[in-house]
Structure formats: structure tokens, C-alpha cells
């Protein structure tokens, strides 16, 4: 019976160990519109010794990926913390949109089979009275993103549905001419990096295209998801923003 329960837990989390983090601002902060250095330590379960670089495996060329988004889904960052002394990590960020930010740290501890995600929240404002937007900048469905000469279109053969894999595809065009996936740079070991984040930011999916260009995304919630897609072309990094609505499962009576 006990064994059954343990296996059930493993099935849910892929690992019995849980991870958490503690963070601080060694140079003061959080500061809106200015460099804020975030320092943190990662811990496994009840361990009091933090995880060091030697405890982590490289994923997409880095040991830790840090993504963050504000409450209005206006600003997205993807950074890579560096270990400054054993178990102590630092990452500078510049955030210039006032908001409540959620930070997602992703890492793969040695001995684990799935990537772990731990989160923390912080407010970046000019002054404590500043009104911050909690409504996503694109609250409805947004499937094209244009910036300068580039236009990116998100498409899928069937509408996004909860607990179903969405087969998404992103078409990148420059001046109206599609750029084949293979011609995009290899950036952090992939042609594209996709983050799908639910409105409450409790569901976070990080995905990459398969060779065919299809990106498989699994949604655990219904409603709004902010989608951020990053690609690099001729050395220049582009961050694109989309939004979609995930439907509830159809009743199967
Ligand atoms: Cu990625």
C-alpha cells in the first residue's frame, strides 16, 4: 500500500524530492528601470547545503534558466544566472514595466529525470502607490506579432484544449518572405524557445520545435495563456509575444 502511494507520487511529480529557493538583492532592490542583481540559492528537500554547479546538468547550454513575466504580460525575460561562489547564484535583470513579476527558475539536478521549476514573486514599481496593470496587454487571442521587418504567425490545426497536446507552429517572415526553420540560428541549443504561461502564472511550459517545426504544448488550465517565443536570426535575438485561450474539455457523456 505504501509502495503504491509512493509510486503514485512519483507519477505526478516524476521525483519525490522537492526543491525551493531563497533570494535576496545584494545591491538593493528590486529597482524598476535599473539593473537589479538577484542572488539566490537552491535547496533540495530539507537539505541545508545549496545546490552547486556540480549538482546540476547542462540543459540548452546552461545550468539554470531564469524566465520572468510581469502581471500584465508585457515584459518577458530569459536570463542565465551565474554561480559566483559555491551554491550562490547571481543574475542581473533590467525590468522597466511596473508590475508584479513572477520568476521561474528551471534546472535539472543530477540524478533527476525531469527539469525542475521553482518560482518567486516580486514587485517592481517606481513608488509604492504606483498602480500596476494586472490585465494582460493582449487579453484575447493574439496569433501574429510584428516587429520591424519581422512578422511571426502562430497557428495550430485544432483549438487549444485543456489536458490535450497542442500542435503549434510558428512561421517567421522577414519582409513578407518566410524564413525556413533551419535558417534560424541555433540559440541555446534550439531554433526557438517557447514559454506558455497561464493567467495566474501557476502553469509554465517551456517547449521547443521538433525537426518538423511542430511545437507540442500541454496546458493544465483553461483560459488565457501568454506565449513568448524567442528565436535568433543572423545573431540577433527576437522575442515575440502571443496570447491564446485554452478551452475546457468537451463533456464526454
Ligand atoms: Cu528553451
Description:
- With 253 residues, the chain is mainly beta.
- It binds copper (II) ion.
- The site of copper (II) ion (CU) has 6 residues, from loops.
Summarize the structure.
With 253 residues, the chain is mainly beta. It has one helix at 2-13; strands at residues 19-24, 35-44, 56-57, 64-70, 76-79, 82-85, 88-94, 99-109, 116-124, 144-147, 150-155, 165-174, 177-178, 193-198, 204-207, 215-218, 223-233, 236-246. It is built from 1 helix and 18 strands.
Task: Give the topology.
Layout: H1 2-13, E1 19-24, E2 35-44, E3 56-57, E4 64-70, E5 76-79, E6 82-85, E7 88-94, E8 99-109, E9 116-124, E10 144-147, E11 150-155, E12 165-174, E13 177-178, E14 193-198, E15 204-207, E16 215-218, E17 223-233, E18 236-246
Antiparallel strand pairs: 1-2, 2-7, 3-8, 4-5, 4-8, 6-7, 8-9, 10-11, 11-12, 12-13, 12-16, 14-15, 14-17, 17-18
Bound molecules: copper (II) ion.
Q: What is the string of helix and strand elements?
A: HEEEEEEEEEEEEEEEEEE
User: In DSSP terms, counting alpha (H) and pi (I) runs of 4 or more, how many helices?
Assistant: 1
Mean pLDDT: 91
Determine the strand fraction and express it as a percent band: over 45%
User: What small molecules does this complex bind?
Assistant: copper (II) ion
Biggest beta-sheet profile: 5 strands, antiparallel
Morphology? globular
What's the CATH C level of the largest domain? Mainly Beta
Which fold name fills CATH's third level, the topology of the largest domain? Immunoglobulin-like
Q: What is the name of the CATH architecture of the largest domain? A: Sandwich
Oligomer: single chain
Q: CA-to-CA gap between the ends?
A: 33 Å
Helix content: under 10%
Count of discrete structural domains: 2
Estimated structural class: mainly beta
Low-confidence stretches: 1-15
Please provide the count of β strands. Answer: 18
Query: From the alpha-carbon coordinates, what is the Rg to the nearest angstrom?
Result: 19 Å
